[in-house]
Write a structure and sequence with these properties.
The chain is mainly α and about 190 residues long. The chain is built from 8 helices and no strands. Helix content is about 85%, strand content about 0%. About 5% of the residues have low confidence.
Length: about 190
């Protein structure tokens, strides 16, 4: 299928003929599955991600620029989505592993009061992170949970390295402020 044929089908979809998307999805399904599989590593995850990619692409058809190949456009969506799924799963696994090991270590070596205080601090940190803007939270998580360099973060977020440093510094400043506010509120309670 040529890019002109695909562009014609995209135009039909945008004009309300939804069934014109089916040949596009069929044509790219193998390629998108392979991209997702290479990043995620399991057939089930790749199938789920590929399905999500086609839904995202369909919903974003108005953003497709026909000056570029549709193949590149949808592949970029697949890469971004798969990386996002991979990171989310890795963070969930890391968090779960950390929680289990913290509980085992803290209950073996500490009294119940210290365990409670430690859990409260982790909860405060988690709550404070959730209130940060997405750009600060993302930069901090990539730096401190993924242990990525500023250069790697800049490539992922598509921003200059100096901006990465600025986001991390401002994110840490906001996080400290939110945590100090939480501690002040907890002391007053």
């Amino acid at each position: 299928m040529t890019n002109d044929e695909i562009t014609g089908l995209v135009s039909e979809c945008l004009a309300g003929k939804k069934e014109s998307y089916e040949p596009i999805a069929r044509y790219f399904q193998g390629k998108i599955y392979r991209i997702c599989y290479q990043i995620l590593g399991t057939p089930q995850d790749a199938e789920d991600a590929a399905m999500d990619v086609f839904i995202k692409a369909y919903r974003s058809l108005t953003g497709y620029n026909s000056q570029y190949t549709f193949s590149s456009w949808i592949s970029r969506i697949a890469v971004n989505h798969s990386i996002s799924v991979f990171r989310r799963r890795k963070l969930e696994n890391d968090y779960f592993t950390q929680q289990v090991s913290n509980q085992v270590l803290s209950t073996d070596n500490q009294c119940p009061e210290k365990v409670f205080i430690s859990d409260c601090r982790e909860s405060d940190l988690s709550d404070a992170l959730e209130t940060l803007s997405v750009k600060f939270r993302t930069a901090l998580m990539l730096k401190y949970q993924e242990n990525l360099s500023y250069d790697q973060i800049g490539k992922i977020l598509d921003i200059p390295v100096n901006t990465v440093g600025s986001l991390i510094l401002r994110g840490k400043k906001d996080l400290r402020k939110k945590l100090s506010n939480t501690q002040t509120l907890n002391k007053g309670a």
